[in-house]
Amino acid sequence: MGVLAFRDAAHLVSRTGLGAEWDSIKQLEGRERQNAVERVLLTPAAPLKPAPAMTPWFKLEPMRLNDMKSRNSAWSIAQNEGKRLQAWWVEQMLTTNTPFVERMTLFWHNHFTSSIQKTLQPSLLYQQNLLLRKHALGRFGDLLHAIARDPAMLVYLDCYQNTKDQPNENFARELLELFTVGRGQYRQSDVQAAAKAFTGWGVDNNTGKFVMRTAHHDGGGSAFLGKTGNFSGDDVINILLAHPRTAERITEKFWLAFVSNQPKPAVVSAWAQQFRQSGYDIKTLMRTLLNSEDFWAEQNRGTLVKSPVELVIGTVRMIPYPRESTPEMLNLCRLLGQELFDPPNVKGWTGGDNWINTQTLLVRNAYLAKLSRGNLNENVATNLKLPAAPDEQLVEWMLPVKPLKPLPTIPGARRLVRSLLLDPAFQVS
Amino acid sequence: MNRREFLGMAALLPLLGSLPIQALAAPGEAKGNQRILVLVKLAGGNDGLNTLVPYTDPLYYQYRPTIGIPKHQVLDIGQNYGLNPYLKALQPWWGKGNLAWVQGIGYPHPDLSHFRSIDIWETAVDSGSYADSGWLGTLLPGCKPGLHGIVIGDNSGPLLGKNCHTIAMESPQTFLSQIRLLEDMPPAGNNPVLAHLTNVQHQLYAAGEQLSTKLQRPVALGMNFSTSEIGRDLEAVAKMILSGVDATVYMVTLDGFDTHTSQANVQSNLLNHLAGALDSFAQAMQRGGRWNDVLLMTYSEFGRRVQENHGKGTDHGAASVQLVMGGKVQGGIYGDRPDLKQLDGDGNLQYTVDFRKVYGTVAKNWLGQRHPWEQFGVLPFV
Question: Which PANTHER family does its entry note (chain B) (predicted)?
């Protein structure tokens, strides 16, 4: 296991951060691989920006049950505060010193999806974001138990309306299908049994926090995934955590987010087993992944399409161009198909090749072209400088693979950087 | 010669504008008479009951004491239905047999959320399923190579798809300014991700070339188009079609149908704009000799609650009506009439026609493709 060459350090930064930041690459260059990975994994999270003011649940929710006028104003409040919350995360991602934490939080946001549009409760989505951050590199089991009690999730997947008399299967179904074991591992009767176990889990009207309404809980016995008993929601989660498919599905998702677009089933299965045996320690899984031959393999470089967030935010974190205003960055992410706190559906963003189609590529390209000309609606200085480095290193800095376009024949770093920015290889990492 | 040089030259050659369209077309491109689908999305959930009014049913007036369209105002079209009076501009097309209504359109287990329901309509999945691609995004790549769809607006739901070459534009002018920033890229084969990316870029570039060339001198429509926003969008579509742009599907959106309060004014205004724009569009197609090649279809995420609410509006509902127009359309009212006596548990109309029956009809009978949902069959409106 050798030391990291410049382009290896660039690979690690680009895959774990937001943009291949020059200084971060330089800090990792020449280190032992394992040592560099530990630096990424162990750097404590940078402080969070203060949250925007948001109307709490117990004020917003009753307005919805009122007359039309209150309902309309609750809606406008949710829309305005939702925009502010999105802006908060964008600015956090733009300025943080620990972009890895943001990336991990975004990974979990895309796994445990919830949306400001369905819930119309931005303050709950903010709380959920804090929860995802807290457990982002902790234990998956803790995260799963916590997310089942998370008010935004309880509302998003209707679990707060899941009662003994009127069971609602929405959360139970997605828990099985998307959050843990996946399709093919359960039957409708398992969904019903899980829904029953979560009856009475709700949101307290006065505090906006999780509440267990025992009167609405159905304590009767049922059969779930081959086991019988009077299951609580936590029992159901524990049974799902003991199922090997849960670890495999999460591990495969990690592979697709960090390694390549083609998971190797044998490797995924080995990592998954280790993940489960480690008590679902996410840091252990990431350590294995980032130290693996597959992560560093040449054929896996440039096989991940940069997400809209990586492209829009990461680019201005790495290259000294004036950035767009925050609302415009949000608008670009929307046009490119990734609205923070508002994934398209409970499955989240599919990502990968799906980020690229004729419409999004047009907008991606227009954004980068505009950026490179400094021709922006509202310029915001980013205090970055173009690194003084030989051309070959600038190429390795910006692209994970060889450029597809011929390099400019006229010398000059700015010209070179502009050409690399508009190279299709800049869209991948 | 690159595209910009070409356009620069074109500007110096006034005669170019008088060349027949075919001379400008890329080699191998389909010439003329290619069938076109125009989608008009009525966003927010259009109230079907006040669009195609069951005015002979006393229950309708019981459920709608203040917002029901009075008998003497509806435009009778037979079969105990009357058109909303603000759709008057569509009457001539109904008279010619170029307009069809599908009643009772919907799907099982209707979802009353705007977001989820429009997703179901645009991806054509069952109520509990999810898909990444739009229904046309899956279908169109099999129809032809090159450009598949053009969307006026920024949301191209039904046309979303990794291999569906769709352009979304605020207007042709904004598109032309964006596409100028894009370079052509020969498809790269070494890595599948970059192969996809470069292929998309190449397709996009080719579409840009085509549009720049054809819209350099768009044909004059020779008529005054309806001036509402939807009118301007459909005018842009009409110009693209008549200028020979080679896209199979065009899509425009009319937003604002979420009429929870004071529905009458809001919906009348929207339907008035819609009818005016559709009438202008049909006239333009007829004058340009393309009316027989065009099928226009509306869709909306849901209809509205049968019982009006206290705000003289209606809440989110289920089954609704869908409009289909075109030179080859067999006019009439299709599907079974939904029963106002048998509402679902939420007080909504129960569907009688699955929307995929209409989509399948369009796929099979209009676009000449396999029916993606054979089990639903077809309706003979085209």
Answer: BLL7424 PROTEIN, DUF1501 DOMAIN-CONTAINING PROTEIN
